[in-house]
Amino acid sequence: MGRKLDLSSLTEEEAEHVLQVVQRDRQLRKSEEDRLRQLKQELEEEKTRCALLSRQPGFNERCCMLCCSPFSFLLASRQACHGCGYNVCRHCRRYTRDMPAAPSPRLRGRGARCP
After folding, report:
1. Which of 3.40.50.300, 3.40.1190.20, 3.30.40.10, 3.40.190.10 would CATH assign to domain 60-115?
2. Entry pTM
3. Residue 96 Cα distances to 22, 32, 41, 81, 88, angstroms
4. In this entry, which stretches build a coiled coil (predicted)?
């Protein structure tokens, strides 16, 4: 980042063009950093919201523990994660073939897991 370029061999027009490219790169990097900062903040807010909601009695019976979306019979059915035991929706769960560390023998084999 801190390298210096020798622009003495360039014409005035070429040097101006290089300067414009560098300035545009700086603007793009700043806008990307701002976008990432905003996404991180939104993610933290979502985690906080889910953490607060999960403390309500029976929350996990009605809503996914990961995304907080409500369960429905067909569209967002629930299934218990074999790792933590919480209910997760079909959008949040991942399937594994082998679960040797399952907490009970009936949970061994193919099953849903939190990502």
Report:
1. 3.30.40.10
2. 0.43
3. 47, 35, 31, 11, 15
4. 22-56
